[in-house]
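## tool: complex_structure
## caller: assistant
## args:
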Amino acid sequence: MTGITVWPVGVVVAQVTLFVLGAPFLVGLMRTVRCRLEGRTGPPVRQTWRDLRKLLGKQRTQPEKSSVFFAMAPVVLVATTLVVVAFAPLLSIDTVFSGGSDLFAIVFLLLLGSVSLALAALDTGTAFGGMGSSRLMAIVALAEPALLVAILALAAPVHSSSLPIIVAGSLHHPMWLATPQRILAFGAFVIVILAESGRLPVDNPATHLELTMIHEALMLEYSGPDLAFVVLGESLRLLVLLALLSNLFVPWGIATSLTGLSFVVAVVSLAAKVALLATLVAAGEVMVAKLRLFRVPELLAGAFVLSVLAVLSSLVIA
Amino acid sequence: MTESAPRPVETGTQHRSDLLDLRGSLQLRHVDAGSCNGCEMEIASIFSPVYDAEQYGIRLVASPRHADAALVTGPVTKNMAGPLRRTIEALGAPAVVIAIGDCARDCGVFAGAYGVEGSVTDVTEVHLEVPGCPPAPADIIAALRRFSQT
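## result:
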């Protein structure tokens, strides 16, 4: 009897643990891929974990006259992302929380982390913090509508925005994955994920130039454990977004029942899919330059057009 | 080369292992305190594909809050003495100061010039010095790895 109640909760705990352990490796993998393509040896994939371990032992600093927003933002960022990891059907569509994993709720939980970081950057009172948060809010305000409309296109065939139902629907009807609305929505999702996670061509995560920064400018004043939390939160968010992308558009491998074997298959297949996506993103980053800030709205408007076309085509086909 | 490269000199009163526990992760904040940019070119080249300091976990960062060490080049000019002190104060403790090049150690050819406040040692405590005008990239990496290894 206890086995029945313990096991589903255990799956959620395992999902959260695996994602926290894996997220820094994802960022490390992307950095290694970039280095190799640039002809450098590059750091080992575990480098992000080394950085985090060191940061946890360092001093925490807080700017003069900053408020509780600054202190809370790293915790809020990690906590909201962990809630998404616990709720979303990332490894199994049949979890104890799967009823609560609405796509809109997941999008806005992830947004809450961004907003709290932007508020914290304003709170520091530095010029670059304010500049970074205004830029981030401008990008988010353009990216979110595209994402929400793209979600509509995915929700239309199953008449539900619940993530497990969408994933189960595409598992039962593999032909749905090749429909025009799925392909158009995929394009919109990819652009929005690149914008939200601060990758090229929207933002350069490796920049040292404050004037070109967006995401990096928000964390300039954090040090020690706070910085470790921000880095962990940002890498977790990237991992969640890539995992959602692979589950929505290539769902095969996700566990449909709560057996040990299907869980292992889900972990291995999701790791392979996310690693492939991350390698492709990193390889793409070597090829492109960062867009001028005033061209970013055009890219995000393109994502919005793709998602509107996705909704239109789903209505026409229905 | 006609003579062997000069070795890095440890100057601090404390041993490096008392100060930092890095184990393969060293983030640097570079401060140009009045350099001729010779040392800057060598620092830039340690991150090139030839030397690739990033494989040892060494990175330049955008904020002193993120850094474990300040990498100071050039003689400290009167205008840069204040900003240098403030940058070192802003480093997240524990942190060290590394003087790169002969000018940072003893003002080099700029010693006694009207705009020069003094060497980095005159302004702040220095934990490691890398001699050379400019120091070779391999020497800079060897010096930095004394901190980042262990």
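## assistant note: Residues 2-317 of chain A form one domain. Chain A has a mean pLDDT of 86. Handing back to user.
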